[in-house]
């Protein structure tokens, strides 16, 4: 199991223990299925940023605490230099760099996301979460599917959408795609 995912899973389990909730109660409160929650807490399943965000918002804790084990401290501004954002690789195909991890009480969570290419026949992973999302492609091309509608985005293209709709993305042309994702509740 990847060390970063293992640490996130331990923080989620620690939160549940601190709240003195059963697995079933925690899953229900977070709006997740029991099996989905158990996979997340064990670190054996995919831990999407949106699932972490759902848990963080429900319990009114900063997303950074679950993702990185750190409490944000800045309230005026937070500077992230290119390539220095705190990163987590949820899977080998997705790398997230948090761009505002030190700013407390954020209204949005901006990430630099890198999606590695997969074989053509690999099915797309779909996600849903509360709120809205903005994506701006920085380099490469990606196929973005929203509620069954497929769109090809190239460098410079952006898309703003209702993130409660099933959405997924895939790198195209056998090359990684990098994009700015801003997730808002």
Describe the protein in words:
The chain is an alpha+beta fold and 185 residues long. The chain folds into two domains: 3-68, 434 Repressor (Amino-terminal Domain) (Orthogonal Bundle), CATH 1.10.260.40; 86-184, Jelly Rolls. The chain is 27% helix and 31% strand. The protein contains five helices and nine strands. It has helices at 3-19, 23-30, 34-42, 49-58, 63-68, and strands at 86-91, 94-98, 108-115, 132-139, 141-146, 149-154, 158-162, 167-171, 177-184. A six-stranded antiparallel β-sheet has the order 1-2-3-9-4-7, with no helix packed on it. It has a three-stranded antiparallel β-sheet with strand order 6-5-8, with no helix packed on it. A hairpin with a 2-residue loop joins β5 (141-146) and β6 (149-154). InterPro entries: Cro/C1-type_HTH (IPR001387), Cupin_2 (IPR013096), Lambda_DNA-bd_dom_sf (IPR010982), RmlC-like_jellyroll (IPR014710), RmlC_Cupin_sf (IPR011051), TransReg_Diox_bact_type (IPR050807). Keywords: DNA-binding.
The CATH architecture classification of the largest domain is Sandwich
Number of helices: 5
Q: Biggest sheet, in brief?
A: 6 strands, antiparallel
Q: Estimate nothing, just give the exact number of structural domains.
A: 2
Order of helices and strands: HHHHHEEEEEEEEE
- Give the mean pLDDT: 86
Keywords: DNA-binding
Domain HTH cro/C1-type: 12-66
Protein name: XRE family transcriptional regulator
């Amino acid at each position: 199991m990847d060390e970063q995912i293992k640490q996130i899973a331990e923080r989620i389990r620690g939160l549940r223990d601190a709240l003195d909730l059963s697995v079933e109660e925690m899953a229900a409160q977070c709006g997740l299925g029991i099996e989905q929650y158990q996979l997340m807490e064990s670190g054996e399943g995919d831990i999407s940023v949106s699932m972490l965000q759902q848990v963080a918002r429900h319990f009114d804790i900063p997303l950074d605490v679950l993702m990185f084990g750190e409490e944000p401290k800045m309230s005026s501004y937070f500077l992230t230099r290119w390539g220095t954002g705190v990163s987590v690789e949820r899977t080998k195909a997705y790398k997230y760099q948090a761009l505002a991890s030190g700013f407390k009480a954020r209204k949005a969570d901006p990430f630099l996301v890198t999606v590695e290419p997969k074989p053509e026949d690999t099915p797309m992973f779909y996600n849903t979460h509360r709120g809205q999302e903005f994506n701006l492609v920085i380099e490469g091309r990606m196929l973005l599917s929203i509620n069954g509608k497929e769109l090809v985005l190239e460098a410079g293209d952006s898309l703003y959408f209702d993130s409660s709709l099933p959405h997924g993305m895939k790198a195209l042309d056998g090359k990684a795609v990098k994009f700015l994702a801003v997730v808002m509740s």
